[in-house]
């Protein structure tokens, strides 16, 4: 794994500021079940790793009566799986969260991380040394997709999230906070946004 600087912002605003300051050189981490594996394989090599876990108030499940249920970005998949509120009112979401990987991953993996996770492309998700023996694919700046033999472009864009399809089916809305402020979008509209993450 290449060396990096580890940063722990204490507020959402500070995290956004760090991402803006180190644009293209920083990666977010919460549970780490996705990005750390990619870093070990040198698929991604950020200069800065921005840990969101120290920001208070991002892990919660709130039922506000008749207006629905709010789930914080850093709420673990295990908390969603075992929540009596989620099981009672959004049982299919509890089931989807409970089907993610294995217990150790669900104990640390967050709902936001599951929604925003990298695709599992058998070519892209290999070590840096392995990549050097092939012509680069679309995701790595080349002009070929080793997955799609018909060459219709990069197929790595296929969403891998276990929970996003359920959230879309339930009509969920997603709050996105970034350098341009805050906005709430319908769950189905998050798919084009996630391709840019």
How many whole angstroms does the radius of gyration measure? 18 Å
CATH superfamily of the domain at 1-56: Uridine Diphospho-n-acetylenolpyruvylglucosamine Reductase, domain 2
CATH level-3 fold name of the domain at 1-56: Uridine Diphospho-n-acetylenolpyruvylglucosamine Reductase, domain 2
Number of strands: 7
CATH first level of the domain at 1-56 = Alpha Beta
Rough outline: globular
Oligomer: single chain
The pLDDT mean sits at 88
The percent of residues in helical segments reads: 25-40%
Beta strand %? 5-15%
> What is the helix tally?
10
Order of helices and strands: EHEHEEEHHHHHHHEEH
Query: Which structural class matches the secondary elements?
Result: alpha/beta
Tell me the major beta sheet: 3 strands, parallel
Strand adjacency order, main sheet: 1-3-2
CATH architecture of the domain at 1-56: 2-Layer Sandwich
* Unreliable residue runs: none
């Amino acid at each position: 794994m290449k060396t990096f600087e580890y940063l722990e912002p204490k507020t959402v605003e500070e995290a956004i500021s760090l991402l803006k300051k180190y644009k293209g050189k920083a990666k977010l981490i919460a549970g780490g079940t996705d990005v750390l594996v990619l870093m070990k394989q040198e698929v991604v090599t950020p200069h800065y790793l921005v840990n969101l876990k120290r920001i208070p108030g991002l892990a919660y499940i709130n039922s506000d009566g008749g207006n629905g249920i709010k789930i914080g970005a850093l709420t673990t998949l295990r908390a969603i799986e075992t929540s009596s509120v989620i099981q009672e009112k959004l049982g299919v979401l509890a089931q989807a969260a409970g089907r993610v990987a294995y217990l150790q991953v669900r104990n640390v993996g967050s709902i936001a991380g599951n929604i925003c996770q990298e695709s599992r492309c058998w070519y892209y998700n290999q070590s840096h040394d392995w990549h050097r023996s092939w012509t680069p694919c679309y995701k790595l700046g080349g002009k070929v997709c080793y997955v799609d033999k018909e060459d219709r472009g990069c197929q790595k864009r296929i969403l891998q999230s276990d929970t996003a399809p359920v959230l879309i089916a339930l009509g969920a809305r997603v709050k996105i906070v970034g350098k341009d402020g805050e906005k709430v979008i319908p769950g189905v509209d998050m798919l084009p946004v996630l391709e840019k993450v």
